[in-house]
Amino acid sequence: MVSATLLHLTLASIEDKYYFAKTSKGPHIIRHSLLKQTFKLGYPLKLYCEAEGLYSPQINWYKNGVQLSNDHRTVIKTERFRHGVSSRLQLVLTRILDAGLYDCVARDDNGIHMREFRVDYKL
């Protein structure tokens, strides 16, 4: 019998509930950047996350619970491979406001797996 843990995520100020199935069928983050990062103001910040699963997961990035997307300062590049996906998040010309908690969330039909990165700046 498969046990499931109720996982609460606050995404874009809305509390969504997801079930994370502890089976080999759900996605698993297999490689990622260091969980504590420090960036120098004005220089790029790069985070990496790679996940695999039977149902080719997708990866989304969040900062302080708000989903990130590509814009003039945020670049997200995703590459698919046989049973998985790798994703790189890059913030160019970093500012003090870029410090915070970043989440890499791998999701497929069988559940989610996430990693949290604590990011701070140095002068």
Would you give an account of this structure?
The chain is an all-beta fold and 123 residues long. It has a single domain, classed as Immunoglobulin-like, CATH 2.60.40. It has no helices and eleven strands. The strands form three sheets. A five-stranded mixed β-sheet has the order 4-11-10-6-7, with no helix packed on it. Strand 8 and strand 9 form a beta hairpin. The N terminus is likely disordered.
What distance separates the N and C termini? 52 Å
SSE-based structural type: mainly beta
- The CATH class assignment is Mainly Beta
Spans with pLDDT under 50 lasting ≥5 residues? 1-22
* CATH structural architecture: Sandwich
Q: Please state the average pLDDT score.
A: 85
* CATH superfamily grouping: Immunoglobulins
Major sheet description: 5 strands, mixed
As an assembly, this protein is: single chain
What order do the SSEs take from the amino end to the carboxyl end, as H and E? EEEEEEEEEEE
| Number of DSSP E strands | 11
Overall spatial form: elongated
Estimate nothing, just give the exact number of structural domains.
Answer: 1
